[in-house]
What we know:
Helix content is 78%, strand content 0%. It is mainly alpha-helical.
Amino acid sequence: MHSRLHHHFMGWLSVILIGGLCAVAISRAADDPKSTSPEAKAAKKQRADARGYLPPYYKNVVDPTQREKIYKIQNSYDEKIDALEKQLKELSDQRDAEIEAVLTPEQKKKVQELAAAAKANRSKKTAAAEPAPSAEGK
Protein backbone atom coordinates (compact mmCIF):
# COMPACT_ATOMS: atom_id res chain seq x y z
CA MET A 1 0.00 0.00 0.00
CA HIS A 2 2.78 2.39 0.92
CA SER A 3 4.45 1.89 -2.45
CA ARG A 4 1.23 2.67 -4.33
CA LEU A 5 0.63 5.75 -2.23
CA HIS A 6 4.22 6.87 -2.70
CA HIS A 7 4.00 6.30 -6.46
CA HIS A 8 0.74 8.25 -6.61
CA PHE A 9 2.24 11.10 -4.56
CA MET A 10 5.39 11.24 -6.70
CA GLY A 11 3.28 11.30 -9.84
CA TRP A 12 1.24 14.24 -8.60
CA LEU A 13 4.33 16.03 -7.33
CA SER A 14 5.87 15.69 -10.78
CA VAL A 15 2.72 17.04 -12.41
CA ILE A 16 2.65 20.00 -10.04
CA LEU A 17 6.33 20.83 -10.59
CA ILE A 18 6.03 20.55 -14.36
CA GLY A 19 2.82 22.59 -14.35
CA GLY A 20 4.49 25.29 -12.30
CA LEU A 21 7.47 25.40 -14.60
CA CYS A 22 5.17 25.61 -17.63
CA ALA A 23 3.22 28.44 -16.04
CA VAL A 24 6.45 30.35 -15.44
CA ALA A 25 7.59 29.77 -19.01
CA ILE A 26 4.24 30.91 -20.41
CA SER A 27 4.23 33.93 -18.15
CA ARG A 28 7.70 34.94 -19.27
CA ALA A 29 6.83 34.44 -22.93
CA ALA A 30 3.67 36.52 -22.57
CA ASP A 31 5.54 39.47 -21.08
CA ASP A 32 7.18 40.52 -24.35
CA PRO A 33 5.97 38.85 -27.54
CA LYS A 34 8.14 41.16 -29.69
CA SER A 35 11.45 39.82 -28.38
CA THR A 36 11.88 36.75 -30.54
CA SER A 37 15.49 36.97 -31.69
CA PRO A 38 17.92 34.64 -29.90
CA GLU A 39 19.89 37.63 -28.63
CA ALA A 40 16.77 39.30 -27.25
CA LYS A 41 15.64 36.06 -25.60
CA ALA A 42 19.07 35.53 -24.03
CA ALA A 43 19.17 39.11 -22.74
CA LYS A 44 15.65 38.82 -21.34
CA LYS A 45 16.48 35.51 -19.64
CA GLN A 46 19.60 37.03 -18.09
CA ARG A 47 17.58 39.98 -16.77
CA ALA A 48 14.86 37.67 -15.46
CA ASP A 49 17.39 35.39 -13.76
CA ALA A 50 19.08 38.37 -12.13
CA ARG A 51 15.88 39.90 -10.86
CA GLY A 52 13.43 37.00 -10.72
CA TYR A 53 9.98 36.81 -12.25
CA LEU A 54 6.54 37.77 -11.18
CA PRO A 55 3.77 35.23 -10.77
CA PRO A 56 0.96 35.44 -13.31
CA TYR A 57 -1.17 38.61 -13.08
CA TYR A 58 1.17 40.39 -10.64
CA LYS A 59 2.92 42.58 -13.22
CA ASN A 60 0.35 45.38 -13.29
CA VAL A 61 -0.63 45.08 -9.62
CA VAL A 62 2.54 45.34 -7.51
CA ASP A 63 4.64 48.43 -6.96
CA PRO A 64 8.47 48.46 -7.39
CA THR A 65 9.12 47.86 -3.68
CA GLN A 66 6.81 44.85 -3.63
CA ARG A 67 8.40 43.62 -6.85
CA GLU A 68 11.86 43.63 -5.26
CA LYS A 69 10.54 41.86 -2.14
CA ILE A 70 9.01 39.17 -4.36
CA TYR A 71 12.30 38.72 -6.22
CA LYS A 72 14.20 38.35 -2.92
CA ILE A 73 11.70 35.78 -1.67
CA GLN A 74 12.02 33.81 -4.89
CA ASN A 75 15.81 33.94 -4.76
CA SER A 76 15.78 32.68 -1.17
CA TYR A 77 13.98 29.52 -2.33
CA ASP A 78 15.94 28.85 -5.53
CA GLU A 79 18.65 26.71 -3.96
CA LYS A 80 16.18 24.64 -1.93
CA ILE A 81 13.92 24.07 -4.93
CA ASP A 82 16.88 23.08 -7.12
CA ALA A 83 18.01 20.57 -4.48
CA LEU A 84 14.49 19.12 -4.21
CA GLU A 85 14.16 18.86 -8.00
CA LYS A 86 17.49 17.03 -8.12
CA GLN A 87 16.36 14.72 -5.31
CA LEU A 88 13.05 14.09 -7.11
CA LYS A 89 14.91 13.20 -10.32
CA GLU A 90 17.23 10.85 -8.43
CA LEU A 91 14.29 9.16 -6.67
CA SER A 92 12.37 8.79 -9.93
CA ASP A 93 15.42 7.29 -11.63
CA GLN A 94 15.98 4.90 -8.71
CA ARG A 95 12.30 3.86 -8.71
CA ASP A 96 12.36 3.29 -12.48
CA ALA A 97 15.54 1.20 -12.22
CA GLU A 98 13.98 -0.96 -9.48
CA ILE A 99 10.83 -1.42 -11.53
CA GLU A 100 12.81 -2.36 -14.63
CA ALA A 101 14.83 -4.89 -12.57
CA VAL A 102 11.61 -6.86 -12.06
CA LEU A 103 11.37 -7.59 -15.80
CA THR A 104 12.98 -10.48 -17.65
CA PRO A 105 15.40 -9.64 -20.49
CA GLU A 106 12.66 -10.50 -23.01
CA GLN A 107 10.20 -8.19 -21.26
CA LYS A 108 12.76 -5.39 -21.16
CA LYS A 109 13.30 -5.78 -24.90
CA LYS A 110 9.55 -5.68 -25.54
CA VAL A 111 9.15 -2.55 -23.39
CA GLN A 112 11.98 -0.86 -25.32
CA GLU A 113 10.33 -1.79 -28.62
CA LEU A 114 6.96 -0.44 -27.46
CA ALA A 115 8.57 2.79 -26.23
CA ALA A 116 10.39 3.25 -29.54
CA ALA A 117 7.17 2.66 -31.49
CA ALA A 118 5.30 5.15 -29.31
CA LYS A 119 8.04 7.74 -29.80
CA ALA A 120 7.94 7.23 -33.58
CA ASN A 121 4.14 7.57 -33.50
CA ARG A 122 4.38 10.82 -31.51
CA SER A 123 6.91 12.16 -34.02
CA LYS A 124 4.53 11.37 -36.89
CA LYS A 125 1.63 13.07 -35.08
CA THR A 126 3.77 16.12 -34.31
CA ALA A 127 4.89 16.37 -37.93
CA ALA A 128 1.29 15.99 -39.13
CA ALA A 129 0.08 18.66 -36.72
CA GLU A 130 2.59 21.24 -37.95
CA PRO A 131 1.14 23.51 -40.61
CA ALA A 132 2.40 22.89 -44.10
CA PRO A 133 4.48 25.70 -45.63
CA SER A 134 2.16 28.11 -47.36
CA ALA A 135 2.47 29.03 -51.00
CA GLU A 136 2.66 32.69 -49.96
CA GLY A 137 6.06 32.20 -48.33
CA LYS A 138 7.65 31.12 -51.64
